[in-house]
User: What shape does this take?
Amino acid sequence: MKKPLQINPLKLSQPMGALLAFLGVKNCMPLMHGAQGCASFTKVFFTRHFNDPIAIQTTAVNDITAIIDGGDYSISEAIKNITKKVKPDLVGLFTTGLTETKGDDIKGATLLVKDKQKIVYVNTPDFEGGLESGWSLSVQAMISQLIVPQVTINPNKLLLLPNVNLTPIEVEKIKESIELFGFEVIALPDISESLDGHLGEKQGSMSAGGVEVSTIELLGDSGIVISIGESMKKCGEKFKEIQPLSQHFHLSSVSGLIDTDNFYKILMGYKNIKTPPPSIIRWRKRLQDALLDTHFLIGSSNIVIADEADKSYALSKALKEAGAKISSVIVPTRSAINAFIESEKVLIGDMEDLENALEDCEVIISNFHAHRIAQKHHKALILRGFPNYEQVGNNMNNDVLYEGSCYLLFELANLIRESREKH
Amino acid sequence: MVNRKLIKELLSESACSHNKTKKVSCDKPKPGATSGGCAFEGAQIALFPYADAVHLVHSPAICLGASWETRATLTSFKGENNTVLGYCTDITTNDVIFGGDKKLEESLDYIITNKNPNAIFVYETCVTAMIGDDMDNVCGRVEQKHGIPIVVVHSPGFVGNKNLGSRLGGEAVLGHLIGTKEPKEVHPFGINLIGEYNATGDMWQYIPILEKIGIKVVSTLAGDGRIENIQMAHRAKLNVIVCAKSLITLCRKMQEQYEIPYISISFYGKRDTTNAIMSIVNAFGDEELIKKAKIVIAQEEAKLEDALRDYKKVLNGKKAILNTGGNKSWSIASALQDIGVEVVATSIAKATLEDIEIAKSYVPILIKSPANEQSKLIDEHGVDILLAGGRSLYTAIKKKIAFVDVNQEKKVSYGAYSGLINLAKDVVDALNNPVFKVVGTKAPWEIA
Ligand code: SF4
Assistant: This one.
């Protein structure tokens, strides 16, 4: 009997991805168009994950507006009530399954209030896609609704399009590395300044930092665009439509030696330089050494991963370089990258499927929900992905570029050694 | 189908004192100015603690994806613990167009065949209500086919808030489970615990005390609950509502149908725990029982004071401000007073009128707008510690006073007598921790 339902879901909904994307814009008020519960669950989820207050509001659709309102009323009411208290630079309006089932016209509703408040709208029903697509659709909406087209380009201006799985510190590290090449880098969205867990004076009701709206609007002259992760490819293409003179480079991952090499190859090629800054050269040598130091433990291990598609791809590719055997990968949703994930078995499934794939496996890489599973079956666990309720400081987990790849390899190798001593 | 008549009735509950002035739970949520969970979440909180039942959420990704395995409701159930598992029909575009009935039926069949639970709760959510799935029909059919109770809870989020959802959950249990099984024997001092969810094992702090006195917990809704027990709940002699007013309608109806009286109590703090135990035994009116209770209470209180002695040396004379929501605005205040802390003020910004009334009897100053008043009160009264949600952390840092995040998911119980020791330890730890002052230090490049 084929399983008709989900048992212990891995999948997170599109609106949740949309929220995170809008939290990467400074002074933004994310506004979820749906009944109040969706926003509440989502807020609690990310508050626990990031250990910081999360900004979000809801249009609070109720039993009456669910039937007689096409979205106009609850959206304009919401804008009215929000702007009574705060002055957001942007409202990020995104839908849920309820309001999509009703068939609300959010574009029309947005037009009605556009004189009062700058809004980006995006359709993100939770009965389609997942976290990655919700984030990506929101970025696409910001690109097409905010960026003002320009006729010329600035070849030194680089637009970075990170996928939802990259942690705040990872986004920051990638930005810094690009800056070493003399670029002006703008990440869209930029959660490295909002969800990085910094103590701010205002524990505000809006996003705590991120890329400024005015900066997004002026992105039109970016000469180069780099999208990271399959889910972000479309965003790069969307920008290319606005600015055909720009060059778009797409990378599926920036973890591990080979994929990081590719990343720097692009930057060096574009800048037409032969050697990168010295710190990069040094980190590459450290990674080479790390691969050799860890290959014995990692090369004898068997790993199962359950995470978003782009993250699963990046992890499995990087760990495979040190010889890891990755027996199964479970992803929550369909993605073109799934076919390229380096594993004996890749399936779209849930955490029960993970539990059923543990035979011979030594280490699980997955989210908080794998904690109970790992304990039950005496497996070692590396926590990655959403949610991570257990570990503080997860927003500083770094698996990218030469440096982060070293940390990842060491973390895994040390864990394998510890768990072998225990069992 | 959502039952509008029932919802109306639940929203204007006669036994609820706040109803006389204002129908709090009846207010429609304001777009752009709403926080708090939906009816589905309320139903989930109320019923998920039944560990021997599968809880199937008929919805797309959002309702369950972010909410399973998030509650610290503990169970002693020896079988597969369903409180930490998430079952979802995962409605997709195709189901939205063609209906989700078939998927629901297949899911139920699959669960029964593969998991063999004692019952299944099926939760209706916004999208499945919108597409008009006939869940009662499907579930009724599957129930007949397999002979296990399948309880439909009509709790789409758009009908209202958590409070209403808990009520809807209670109604579903009353209509479908209570009274469907007879016990072998009826205990003379049998009680039902209503609205106790055993978060962090709260009820395990006081049940042994009740048992020592001679009181038996027949069933619970739903902390550490079992389906079989709630089916026999109609043979209890008393309904005990713990801290949560939301299930008062259920208790009133049980009084009408089964002549079971009810009382409402709280097990936070020493005084309240003692009052709670006395209220229960007084409700039975049995001399022996009352005598026994007094002896046990005296023992427990003495034991507690012993354990608190060292903590109280630190805590006596310390001043606190409490900023949290709902019944915690007074129950935690009362507990703090019992460990020797002076509670200068408590916030009522997120409390019902009922809670405000009770809070008045514990705390002299009620804060209406914490953002504006908190800082001032800290200065005026020389407050030592702020107990609040994460948003207020910066206030504590700026004022260089200690902070406890009362809204954070706790790992230990603050309930009954023994929970007070945990609370005392946490507060003392916070007071002794230099971290708030260190973090509040100005950076070398900031002008003093
Ligand atoms: S508001 Fe509706 S869709 Fe949202 S979580 Fe609650 S039941 Fe689900």
The two ends of chain B are 64 Å apart (CA to CA). The pocket of iron/sulfur cluster is lined by residues A 34-35, 37-38, 41, 98; B 38, 40, 59, 62-63, 125-126, 156-157 (CB under 6 Å).
